[in-house]
Amino acid sequence: xxxxxxxxxxxxxxxxxxxxxxxxxxxxxxxxxxxxxxxxxxxxxxxxxxxxxxxxxxxxxxxxxxxxxxxxxxxxxxxxxxxxxxxxxxxxxxxxxxxxxxxxxxxxxxxxxxxxxxxxxxxxxxxxxxxxxxxxxxxxxxxxxxxxxxxxxxxxxxxxxxxxxxxxxxxxxxxxxxxxxxxxxxxxxxxxxxxxxxxxxxxxxxxxxxxxxxxxxxxxxxxxxxxxxxxxxxxxxxxxxxxxxxxxxxxxxxxxxxxxxxxxxxxxxxxxxxxxxxxxxxxxxxxxxxxxxxxxxxxxxxxxxxxxxxxxxxxxxxxxxxxxxxxxxxxxxxxxxxxxxxxxxxxxxxxxxxxxxxxxxxxxxxxxxxxxxxxxxxxxxxxxxxxxxxxxxxxxxxxxxxxxxxxxxxxxx
Length: 413
What we know:
By secondary structure, the chain is mostly helical. It is built from 20 helices and five strands. The protein has four domains: 6-64, 434 Repressor (Amino-terminal Domain); 77-280, no CATH class; 282-350, no CATH class; 368-410, no CATH class. It is 59% helix and 4% strand.
């Protein structure tokens, strides 16, 4: 029987963001016992390896590798504060990205095996039509070097690309006409799924202890031309989720895989934000709502709130659009954003407390999971299992549940 590699054991623990004591507790070992295993002085039992695999979120076979595996390519990290995250936060995000990549690869492979793979023309359409580089740094330089008139034309082409994806099912007016922000997001998501984009809501790894706030990531996209996948942070507001979906569609048009937060200085993120903002609230509409008073914050807040309620938008996005159009000063914009961020944090705290107080009264596990996975991926898994194109074990990887829960998830009573 092959021996486990002690160096791999250390690497797996550290990349899971765990110190010796934390890891030992999770796998029900004494700290000194785990240290001996990591030094190669003791051999873990199969039971220990299974617990380690679960705690470190790695396949058990990983521990037998000769060398530390190269990290998979998850695209570009567009987040502005990535270097400030703790080892545990980084480990949680890495595990989330591994899940997303595994799910997406299985979906594509299944479609190809069943001869259902169809190349989606909108993925990379901007890159092809504008002859742009795929490498992110090169694209950033290209965007920075664009003359203003050319940049504005590029934005218009991107808006046309959004219309190509969303079609007549989710025009701007139809989005505005939805009764609330939750329904508006639901419409936007369903339209994406019908266009071939899988949209999953996720902000944890299966437990409250691994919950990832919006500051850690807002969205992740895999720009695949057969099975594009978007992960949206479930903890974001409904209007924030809508903005993130539109933002990530622009990433698909650019053929850019990567993870995003609220970063606004990166040229690619700035472009995606601008296009998403203009689709959700075009210049002519925001100017029509403009009262002309750029200094009185209370009056501005009232106007912004009215626009948000009428059109299912987020306060931060509307404030950003006002600034982009040059209608408010930078110091006013900064104050508004600071106020809205504080309000959002208070709202998150209240929601968390409310959720804790009624944790036994909310929807069941399978209803919650179905809502987060979305109809697109649920229908795909169910259809492929029924046709024999997908095994239950592989479906469990795509759906992020145990194999014995797949049937209950797909066929709730």
